[in-house]
Write a structure and sequence with these properties.
This protein has about 375 residues and is an alpha/beta fold. It is about 35% helix and about 15% strand. The chain has an eight-stranded mixed β-sheet, sandwiched between helices. Strands 1-2 form a two-stranded antiparallel sheet. Helix 4 crosses helix 15 and helix 8 runs parallel beside helix 9.
Length: about 375
């Protein structure tokens, strides 16, 4: 037999007949289906009463009670000092929603918005993307800058010089063993034009893929005469007049592959992760670039520095960014690339983040960085504006 304090009603849910908490108001329990909603006050409709009792509930840190917005507005219980809950007003323009704003950003990233095209350089810019520290965003930067520039009318070639072939994966270009690749160009003097493939689904973007065979290229190049000039010779024999940009994605080392890229290029694009360890290896890369400039390539210079993987929650990221801007000055792009899950997910779909999720923070940031690069090419940004 049930205790006497259980109330038996038509619904048979067995709610207590008394109050639900010691010292609570002992109003009768009513409501549809016997679910225990407090009874409506006289003069109030059921909907208004329920709204009045449940809207804007606050928890008082000094006592284990519940105070409504109305109670807070009227002064509440003694000792209560909590301000009333403020309910945001619904914007007048119902079309101004997060989804619409993301869609507008996506349209802008894809280059479909009604705005002027980005300027194209007067001649092809050959840029080596290098940093011997791994995981700083070299491949991600090469792929996404190239994709964004291509979507805004530029003709871009990405040369994958990393044996891991990650840039080839992100651009959806076959790079399994046996496919004509950069390895054949460096070791067998194969013309570069014979290994270049269009990137999947993106007009104006091309890739010279890397295969696992490239991992042994550094050993095979050791006895070769003028081994540092193999890529430079291949690029000189290739007609770049129809291209606007050539990005060379380097492996995370300062071996013969990276050396070939530095000798072949006129500019270095240096991605720097916004963490302390990333700063330690930068000076070593700069020293290597100086040696290449003196011995092989007098025109080589660090033209662009891009801050990547920025985490705004940490003070360290801000300090690293300040140090980099102090050291490199106007070479540092204003745009900083934040950490973004979408940037990491995109290669698994054989895409850049520009096409995978154009409304994401990573896609928008890389698009802005690519635009700065395009403005650099046209000379429309002075040093004071780019610093």
């Amino acid at each position: 037999m049930r205790p006497s304090y259980y109330r038996q009603d038509a619904a048979g849910l067995g709610w207590p007949a008394g109050s639900l908490a010691a010292g609570a108001d002992s109003r009768p329990v009513t409501g549809a289906g016997g679910l225990g909603w407090p009874a409506a006050e006289p003069g109030l409709t059921t909907a208004r009463a329920r709204d009045r009792e449940s809207r804007g509930v606050q928890v008082n840190g000094e006592r284990s009670g519940i105070e409504t917005v109305e109670g807070a507005r009227n002064g509440g219980q003694p000792g209560t000092s909590l301000p009333p809950v403020v309910v945001p007003e619904v914007p007048g323009n119902q079309a101004d929603t997060p989804i619409e704003r993301a869609a507008q950003a996506a349209v802008g990233v894809r280059g479909l918005a009604d705005r002027p095209s980005w300027p194209r350089p007067s001649r092809c810019r050959l840029m080596t993307i290098a940093n011997q520290k791994g995981g700083v965003g070299k491949t991600t930067t090469a792929v996404n800058l190239a994709a964004s520039l291509a979507q805004h009318g530029a003709q871009v070639l990405v040369i994958d010089l990393d044996p891991q072939g990650n840039a080839s994966t992100a651009l959806d270009v076959d790079h399994y063993a046996g496919v004509p690749s950069v390895y054949n160009v460096l070791i067998e003097d194969c013309p570069l034009a014979e290994v270049i493939r269009p990137a999947g689904g993106m007009p104006g973007l091309y890739c010279a893929p890397a295969t696992i065979d490239l991992a042994g290229a550094e050993i095979e190049l050791v006895p070769v005469v003028a081994r540092e000039l193999r890529l430079a010779r291949a690029l000189r024999a290739f007609d770049t007049s129809q291209l606007d940009y050539v990005f060379v994605d380097c492996p995370p080392s300062l071996g013969l592959l990276t050396l070939n890229a530095l000798v072949a290029a006129a500019e270095v694009l240096l991605p720097i992760q916004c963490e302390y360890y990333a700063l330690e290896g930068v000076q070593q890369l700069l020293n290597t670039a100086d040696l290449v400039r003196v011995n092989f390539n007098p025109g080589l210079h660090v033209s662009t520095v891009l801050l990547t993987m920025y985490d705004g929650r940490t003070r360290l990221a801000s300090d690293v960014a300040d140090d980099v801007r102090t050291h490199f000055g106007a070479s540092v792009l204003r745009t900083i690339i934040p950490r973004s899950v979408r940037v990491s997910e995109a290669p698994s779909q054989g895409q850049s983040v520009i096409s995978y999720d154009p409304g994401s923070s990573g896609a928008i940031a890389y698009t802005e960085a690519a635009k700065e690069l395009a403005m650099q090419s046209a000379g429309s940004l002075g040093p004071a504006q780019r610093g």
